[in-house]
Amino acid sequence: PFSPLTFFLQGDDNLQAMLVGAMMRKIKSRNWKKQRYFKLEDDFMTIWYQSKKAGNVRSTFSVNDVEAVREGHQSEVLLSIADEFPPDRCFTLVFRGRRGNLDLVAESAEEAQSWIWGMRKLIENVENMGEREKLDQWIGEWFKKADKNNDGRMNFKEVQDLLKMMNVDMNEHHAHHLFTMADKSQSGTLENDEFVLFYKMLTQREDVLKVFQEYSDGQKLSQSNLEDFLREEQLEGGDIQLHAKQLIECYEPSDKAKRMNAMTFDGFLMYLGSAEGSIFNPQRRGIFQDMTQPLCHYFISSSHNTYLMEDQLRGQSSVEGYIRALNRGCRCVEVDCWDGANGEPIVYHGHTFTSKILFKDVVSAVGNYAFKVSQYPVILSIENHCSVEQQRVMAHHLNHILGDRLLKTILDGKTPIRLPSPEDLKGKILVKAKKDGGLEQSLTGVVEDSLNGEVSDEDEAAEIDENHPHHESIHRRLKSKQRLSKELSDCVVYCKSVHFTSFKHSRIHSKFYEVASFTESKARKHLREAGAEFVHHNSRQLSRVYPSGFRTDSSNFNPQEMWNAGCQIVALNFQTAGEGMDVNDGLFSQNGCCGYVLKPSFMREADIRFDPEMPQKRDDYHPVVLTIQVISGQQLPKVNIKEDSIVDPLVRVEVHGVPMDQAKQETRYIENNGFNPMWYDTLHFTIHTPELAMVRFVVEDYDKTSKNDFVGQYTLPLSCMQQGYRHIHLLSKDGTSIPPSSLFVNVPLYISAL
Known about the structure:
It is a peripheral membrane protein. This protein is an alpha+beta fold. Helices cover 31% and strands 22% of the residues.
């Protein structure tokens, strides 16, 4: 009764075969091949398997967890046994997240085909499910977890255990009352549909019902009631009549209500739980910004030490680091190059125990993954410690592997006066590194192979030496002996790495294609001493800011303070979860997740002076008061694995922006309720530069004796926030979704703070 079963699933031959089940070999390695019986359960959502020995425990997994099915020898494990089993009997189930693959060999090619096509049909069915079906299916999964003796019914003891698993601390009397009301058959146990009823009584949304009753006749919202709600509470403009019609059409489950152009409470709840009812404005999800401005007018999603998977002293270097960053929309990756054996340059964190990978493998990975999630340009930020010979090898790999995707020449052959745009550079990979001479000389073709200056513009060893000026001069002298190969220099067009002297020097001498790199501490110093100058500098050319070399644990600074100065390439350790990456993910979740976000106009125009330290001096200064009423939470995940521990949740709302806007406020904590805590707490923030503000919602488990535990978070730009009654769908520490955990808030009209 829970399953989102449609007639077409039941009539499918492949699925019928899966319901009967089959003996297959589960393969873990060349030497580990064991027979297991696999079977689809009749909820069409769960696969279970067990070994032939009687009494062995069944293992199960949900169709929800499977991302794809690969046919034939398409995994390292199946390739290793290719000589034993033909490809038409082999297939691989690929799971979501970090879980390993499941490699299987069927008894016959026909049986393999049944499972391959059956699984694909089930995955497609899950992907096409509506919100209501997803919820029913989620309830069904809980039922299975709690029905310990597998008799398809639940007694009161099993229901109590389930409540603990679901983070609900309910007194026995109240739980028993609900149990009795749901037990329509009076059998002392809940069967499937009775359990659904119990669950619905348990999750009754009093908070949403309150809002519904304000606008409805108690039973339903007429279309004009719904229009009033959209206008007065959700603060919508545009064609409200049409929008109300569309919402009824899309979210109302009752055909009878639809015929009356009305919405029931169930439909209202579905709308508020959908993407349209979420805090993030769906109109800002896709690409909506002007992509034809110079590159320096955008914030660019950027990664530091991209090759590292963990810390900077003895961490694992891996090509996987580049694949993960590019798949998250990162558009600037770092490649730290050193001389390797056999004339092949290597990539690793110099002078440390991190492992090493080949430069050519990094270039191949970038070539393969650069444009999977975004068509806009990728910048390879090269930190070059190689000899001239190996620099030539680097240039060969870049040219040979990337071909015409590597930008080698100026776009239209004429001497440009400003940087090209992301639109102009679609599908192109740019190299950021040292260059002999400038763009002007490359057009005339006169450049000598030179001895001028260091090869690498950024060296964390140099930064650590900064406290010892004597060391630094020796360091610089040693480095300046290194030469730059013409071949590698020729790979650099619009991103020539230069050493930064001063803003005054840049104003007079610097070219638009020159890029300076700053450590976070240097950038902070410039920000404090000359914020407006820094913003002005960044309206003409690119700046890169990277974490201090003292952060050996690969921790991150908050990128917001560098964006306040208009710095475009703010490089973070993508491998490290936490506030820095949350804020970065939040900014780049808009504009199609394409890795480029247009800076506000007051940071792009050379004649406007904007000082992030003094936002009130801006000509078009319009501060606002942001009010957020935190109403309730839904099904927050358990933090403590201990059976009987239940969350004491509080919500912290943080504003990240210019220094005057940095603020944090918390609700009170609610004891022992992670299932449906209610706060109704109102928080107020004055925001002086709304265009730069980010809002982060953090849920924590309150602990009076130690640091609170993290439960979930969600971060978004203030400019992408919808007003009115909204759900916030929480994310885990590493940024993945944790359905159905959410917060319910009300964001009334912003009022001017002037």
